[in-house]
Amino acid sequence: MASTKELLQMDLYGLLGVEGKATEKEIKKAYRQKALSCHPDKNPDNPKAAELFHQLSQALEVLTDAAARAAYDKVRAAKKQAEERNNRLDDKRKKIKLDLEARERQAEAETQKTEEFKITRTLEEEIARLREEGSRQLQEEQRLIREQIQKEREWRLNAQSTHADLPSAQQDKRKVTPKLKLKWKCKKDDDTNGGYSQEVLQGLLQKYGDILNIIISSKKKGSAVVEFSTVRAAELACKNESGLTGTPLKISWLEGQPVSAAPPGPDYSRTGVFTSSQTSLSSERDYESLVLMRMRQAAERQKLIEQMQREDEEEEVAKT
């Protein structure tokens, strides 16, 4: 545990990202989220991650113990009041204050104000007690984190093994970004294209997830292709979006329609381990996929344009 002086310089609430009035449940939740990302087992080559994990553990120890937290809050409140008083002083009074403090430091170098000494001493005693007794809550939280990290490792290995066993054609299919075909009724001489533009479609569909491309056909009105970054976003848009009231959308899959192949993730609800890391792990995979898709975005966009042109030409031929 850090020394009392070090703790006095740390903003324990800020370190955990919670308010000063946060409940114990909120403090534990914040600790879990931050400690998981910087756990030494997940960052073996990053010494700063280990240091941050240690500081988070110290913050949890103090803020989940009622007596230690009360003592820390008093020190924190005293510092805040002193800062507020200092901020209210004008330049002239600040100079007077600095001169006075210099004389006081010279005359009372070995003394402290009675109240400050008392609350600091109380915090020291509480920290000493925690050091002797150990923090049961901290040990329990760290045990849960270790269990979750192990489950995530097993899940990754299982997912990698399943992916390796898939036929090459199915693996190639999984690499295709999800694309939807949009159609709506529109007259040939309608300059507004039925009320749809790239901005309008972006506004309607972005609530379902990140959009990589929106291509509106330049040859045939009432037709567009939308490329999403994730299959889930495309699924939601396909199932739920109806478009503008006067000119509803007809949405169908063009590419990347999902196939159930991935193994289920670990069930955290049975063990009591918090489930926020499921989201973080999924987000990590989505981010990696998104980076790769961004690299191919220009080529995909050109491919979409060419594909739409071919489809429009085929439809024109079929009509004639």
At the fourth CATH level, what is the homologous superfamily of the largest domain? RRM (RNA recognition motif) domain
In total, how many beta strands?
4
User: What percentage of the residues does DSSP assign to strands (E)?
Assistant: 5-15%
Count of spatially separate domains: 2
> What would you call the shape?
elongated
Residue share in helices?
Answer: 55-70%
Mean pLDDT across residues: 79
CATH topology of the largest domain: Alpha-Beta Plaits
The sequence of SSEs as H and E is HHHHHHHHHEHEEHEHH
What gap, in angstroms, lies between the N and C termini? 82 Å
Q: Give the biggest sheet.
A: 4 strands, antiparallel
GO molecular function: RNA binding
Coiled coil: 72-151
Subcellular location: Cytoplasm; Nucleus
Domain J: 11-76
Task: Show the helix and strand layout.
Elements: H1 4-9, H2 12-16, H3 24-37, H4 47-63, H5 66-88, H6 91-107, H7 114-133, H8 136-165, H9 168-175, E1 179-183, H10 198-205, E2 211-216, E3 223-228, H11 231-240, E4 250-255, H12 276-295, H13 297-319
Antiparallel strand pairs: 1-3, 1-4, 2-3
Helix pairs in contact: 3-4, 5-7
Keywords: Chaperone, Coiled coil, Cytoplasm, Nucleus, RNA-binding
Subcellular location: Cytoplasm; Nucleus
InterPro entries: DnaJ_domain (IPR001623), DNAJC17_RRM (IPR034254), J_dom_sf (IPR036869), Nucleotide-bd_a/b_plait_sf (IPR012677), Pre-mRNA-splicing_ERAD (IPR052094), RBD_domain_sf (IPR035979), RRM_dom (IPR000504)
